[in-house]
Write a structure and sequence with these properties.
Elements (H helix, E strand, L loop, with lengths): L1 H24 L9 H5 L13 E4 L3 E4 L4 H7 L11 H10 L5 H14 L4 H9 L6 H11 L5 H8 L7 H27 L13 H9 L5 H11 L8 H11 L4 H12 L7 H15 L7 H13 L17 H13 L4 H20 L10 H10 L8 H22 L12 H10 L4
Antiparallel strand pairs: 1-2
Helix pairs in contact: 4-19, 5-9, 6-7, 6-9, 7-9, 7-13, 9-10, 9-19, 10-11, 11-19, 12-13, 12-19, 13-19, 14-18, 15-17, 16-18
This protein binds carboxymethyldethia coenzyme *A.
Carboxymethyldethia coenzyme *A (CMX) binds next to loops.
């Protein structure tokens, strides 16, 4: 397949760069670790490498060097749609090149070929308590498919290190193709009376997902936009880092991505999109369904902070400005749902919350992140079961995490194994002014 050939030529060309860096420049210092960073979650410690995306604190994410508007403009569009093919974005993440229409169609055809989900996955999902969180179901379904891993089989048979990337690529393609039907199945089993919609082979990944969800246009474009925006945010965030970490033990993509999904399910990470909707609903409920005034909203924000909770959808570990993923979704809302009361409320939060967070003086970034806007769009199009929202994030995030794992294998990145120290050691070094 053209994508695989291109990928291999890129990996082969890249390998000597990593070898030279390690062999000739391994001693060059790029960062230092302080006690604050050691206790504070390794914030900003430069210890991961990825060329697939880069997150600038002021500017936001760039996918393979492209801003979100640039990528959205340059990637081939699905005929009759505003949004690009998700398949084309995957091609971009994997190869660093914008695909031609023919190349996108090839990837789309490849995903279709690989999209059949084994019956045992559905059987397992059906044995789970129906009130299990959809992220638990999603993670379980992914892990259950580990027996399909080509990498695992080939590794057991004995394989040259240089070839690891190949079955990893095959596994990644297989898994990526199966995630949308699994997600749609969980949605319809849990929330739509266990009625299911067969896939439509004529549709692209985003279009087919909307079809299997049973939501009308332009939800196909919402899905495409959603998957692309959530795909990658460099390597340090919890889901991407977990995927990389688990894969660094040469665990295959099923083990790795299931673990990544578990990290995404945390309320400080991907679950924040569900928390935002929960928070908004609470506010409106307390006001008998009415949209609050700015003063009322400010009071709710302070009440949240004063009760020791975070304002979901605001703040970020790296970003220091409004998340361009938030802005991209806001532009979509302005076009498609400008008068929707919940969208207006989200905008009002945007006007009020940064001031409140700044006044409180704790959050380093008072601006909204991707999760502040995404739930409202889902709600508008009838996907109101907000505990499902993080599954949507999880389908998109796979594009980036899987691309990274393929490259990790291609470049032979090492087993991840940072060193821990004891509190006593930190106290000793604190007294001495530095680690001697
Ligand atoms: N509301 C209230 N307090 C906040 C806050 C928010 N939205 N964002 C940060 N703070 C607080 C932190 O809890 C921390 O308090 P303590 O000193 O008491 O521990 C302090 O401000 C400093 O935190 P920070 O350095 O600005 O932020 P972190 O890098 O530690 O954490 C994040 C980043 C995203 C976890 C945090 O901003 C947060 O909890 N936001 C709300 C949850 C959220 O929206 N998460 C989704 C992020 C995007 C994603 O991954 O999907």
């Amino acid at each position: 397949m053209a994508l695989k050939d291109k990928l291999f030529s890129k990996i082969e060309a890249w390998r000597p760069r990593i070898k030279t860096l390690l062999k000739d420049h391994g001693e060059v210092k790029i960062d230092e670790v302080t006690i604050e960073k050691c206790i504070g979650g390794a914030r900003d410690v430069k210890s991961l490498v990825t060329d697939i995306s880069y997150l600038d604190p002021q500017e936001g994410i760039r996918f393979r060097g492209m801003t979100i508007p640039e990528a959205m403009e340059k990637l081939p569009k699905v005929p009759g749609s505003e949004m690009p093919y998700v398949e084309g974005h995957f091609y971009l993440l994997l190869t660093g090149e914008v695909p031609t229409k023919k190349e996108v169609e090839e990837v789309a055809a490849e995903f279709k070929k690989r999209s059949h989900v084994p019956q045992y996955v559905y059987d397992i999902l059906r044995t789970m308590p129906r009130d299990s969180h959809p992220m638990v179901m999603f993670s379980t379904a992914i892990l259950a498919m580990q027996r399909e891993s080509i990498f695992c089989r080939k590794y057991t048979d004995g394989m040259n290190k240089n070839d690891y990337w190949d079955p990893t690529y095959e596994d990644a393609m297989n898994l990526m193709a199966k995630l949308p039907p699994i997600a749609a199945y969980i949605y319809r089993m849990k929330y739509k009376g266990d009625t299911h919609i067969a896939p439509n082979a004529d549709l692209d990944l985003g279009g087919n997902f909307a079809h299997m969800m049973g939501v009308q246009k332009p939800y196909d474009d919402v899905s495409r936009m959603y998957f692309i925006l959530h795909s990658d945010h460099e390597s340090g965030n919890v889901s991407a880092h977990t995927g990389h970490l688990v894969a660094s033990a040469l665990s295959d993509v099923y083990y790795s991505y299931s673990a990544a999904i578990n990290g995404l399910a945390g309320p400080l990470h991907g679950l924040a999109n569900q928390e935002v909707l929960h928070w908004i609903q609470n506010v409106m409920e307390k006001l008998g369904g009415k949209v609050p005034t700015k003063d009322e909203l400010e009071k709710f924000l302070w009440d949240t902070l004063n009760s020791g909770q975070v304002i979901p959808g605001y703040g970020h570990a790296v970003l220091r400005k409004t998340d361009p993923r938030y802005t991209a979704q806001m532009e979509f809302c302005k076009k498609h749902l400008p008068d929707y009361p919940m969208f207006k409320l989200v905008n009002m939060i945007y006007e009020v919350a940064p001031g409140v967070l700044t006044k409180q003086g704790k959050a380093k970034n008072p601006w909204p992140n991707v999760d502040a806007q995404s739930g409202v769009i889902q709600w508008y199009y009838g996907v109101t079961d907000y505990d499902f929202y993080t599954v949507l994030f999880g389908v998109g995030r796979a594009l980036g995490v899987l691309s990274n794992i393929v490259w990790d294998r291609g470049l032979g990145y090492a087993l991840e194994r940072p060193k821990s120290v004891t509190t006593e050691m930190l106290e000793k070094w604190a007294k001495e002014g530095a680690k001697k």
